[in-house]
Amino acid sequence: MTTSILYGRPPLVFDPPGAATQTSPLIPGSTALESLADGSVETAMVYAPPGVLERRYALAQALRALQVGGRLDVMAAKDKGGSRLKKELEAFGLEVGETAKAHHRRCLVIKTGSETGLDAAIAAGAMQAVEGLEAWSQPGVFAWDRIDAGSAQLAAHMPALKGAGADLGCGYGALATVVLRSEAVTSLRLIDLDRRAVDAARKNVEDARASFEWADVRTLEAAGDLDFIVSNPPFHDGGSEDRRLGQAFIKKAAEMLKKGGGLWLVGNRHLPYEADLNAAFKRVTPAGDGGGYKLFEATK
Length: 300
Ligand SMILES: C[S@@+](CC[C@H](N)C(=O)[O-])C[C@H]1O[C@@H](n2cnc3c(N)ncnc32)[C@H](O)[C@@H]1O
Hints:
Layout: E1 4-7, E2 21-22, E3 41-47, H1 52-65, E4 66-77, H2 85-90, E5 97-101, E6 104-110, H3 118-125, E7 128-130, E8 135-137, H4 149-157, E9 163-168, H5 174-179, E10 185-192, H6 195-204, E11 210-214, E12 226-231, H7 240-256, E13 257-268, H8 274-280, E14 283-290, E15 293-299
Parallel strand pairs: 1-2, 1-3, 3-4, 9-10, 9-12, 10-11, 12-13
Antiparallel strand pairs: 4-6, 5-6, 7-8, 13-15, 14-15
């Protein structure tokens, strides 16, 4: 029996339990909330994610897994869903104790067994075939119910690629699907930090040349054996953390490629990737510019 679970990494002021089972899909190797049996958990701490569907899904899953009388302790930054937490939990029929701390709202509830609406929240936030997208995806996954404009730009400008390659930050597999249209591609590693993205990609990309890895690109081992890499690296709102992520992707791509191998990269126009590309690659060619995005082909 799992006794204590944790979802995400709450700030230390909330005293996250050290020995709890981690259940965040964004932490490779963690246990999936979905895999926990009903009523098998004594206490749960959830650092609630910012998306509404994703958050209600995580809360409903945690409540489902809790035993009656078990405690759910949830917090979120005020402007990242925290101010809606209490209402959302009350909508499940729970009595909620709310406090404010460190720009967060924290809610404590005890499972009664009479909660309502858990199944509906789980269905709305689960992996699903997205209408109009013709793909499987899940709320919380990057651009989960649409084709990202940056990836679309890259897909439109890339030539047919050849040999062994990887898609760093593959999401639910939109770009990889286009890459695999080239018959000269012999293998493609789809890699993402988000388990939900990797699971969706596995369903979307049914191709014997594809393999799937739930991993952090920054800590991948690089063998320098790939012919090509495509990537629409994480950027979010262009904060400094995101910029560093993109820079780490570029460096890792250079390590993973063989000499002469090529990286096809799309970045938000405001992100200054040029210096990092020039430092890690022999030749960097702008490959298009439009719609707020810049494309690059970089050769090792
Ligand atoms: C801009 S999105 C591109 C997704 C996909 N190519 C698409 O077009 O839908 C970047 C992806 O990188 C993933 N990601 C973020 N940090 C990562 C990391 N450290 N290692 C691997 N993937 C990461 C995100 O989960 C997200 O799916």
